[in-house]
From TrEMBL:
GO terms for cellular component: plasma membrane. Belongs to the glycosyltransferase 2 family. It comes from Phycicoccus duodecadis. The chain crosses the membrane at residues 245-268, 280-305. Residues 15-157 form the Glycosyltransferase 2-like domain. GO terms for biological process: lipopolysaccharide biosynthetic process. This is Undecaprenyl-phosphate 4-deoxy-4-formamido-L-arabinose transferase. The keyword Amino-acid biosynthesis does not apply.
Amino acid sequence: MENVEERPVEPHRVSVIVPVYQGSRTLPALVAEIAASTTARVTPGGRRYLVDELVLVDDCGPDGSDAVIRALAAEHDWVRPVWLSRNFGQHAATLAGISASGGEWVVTLDEDGQHDPEDIGLLLDTAMREQADVVYAAPSNPPPHGPTRNLASRSAKWLVSKLARGARANDFNSYRLVLGEVARSVAAYAGPGIYLDVAISWVARRVATVPVAMRGEGDRPSGYDLHRLVSHFWRLVLSSGTTPLRWVSVSGAAAIVLAPVIAVVLLVGRATGRWDAPGWTSTMVLLMAATGAILFALGVIAEYVGMAVNMAMGKPLYLPVRDRRDGPLGRDDVAPGGGA
């Protein structure tokens, strides 16, 4: 039998997405770090990967970042600019960059340099080991932000973890690795008000985290003022789904069930002389019946509103994907001596 020469396994191809608002000072250094990964490298676990493209999304910031993006795109053919018509915010800019990407994997990171591109290998190793569609960087050191921003972030994540079913809000981080077809599907269906990570949680089969040290934000001013922090908090809370509306529905159903029971108790009390106030029993019976009817009606309305909310957020009924054995998760190329 003729020997068939085995072809080397292709490296994992990664698209890096960076939403840019105030990156004029930090982008050149960040791009220089990413440049080291534009040729095939080996992760700490022995897997080969390379950064195919760096998508810089200009979110119309105030510091002249657009000129820096133009210069970087002219210098490097793997830098791809995406221009937005106006400032839409970090999540919209990230989705725009994901839509323009073409890699097997998508990595999103911030412009300020706090996310080290060298850790992409750790994210990829974790995805392959855990067979995860999404891997979040879990900060191993205190977040390099102010107390107000940290408090708003922790509060919103705690609330969403209680309200949104299936969303591991405490793991959410803007430094994330997502399977390319999942990321681009999310960018296609996500509604205008949805929080990106909540949308990802709707379709991701498995989510993992890996400890990563966060760096300082440098000397650039923070793009998060009080207004943006409140908006960020509210977007995350509203993205938690229809659980609060479901509470209204449950309250309405409970009122319908309890109203006759309470009415019987009141009538028995009236008959046995436990209370003799004229008209009190009939008033309470009518009040309970009316309250039950109102809450039930609100519950029905809440169900319809919940359906409309899910449609507005873009929550899909299903997401078809290719066989995972045919995709990057099925192509493990651990080098000899590499760890798992």
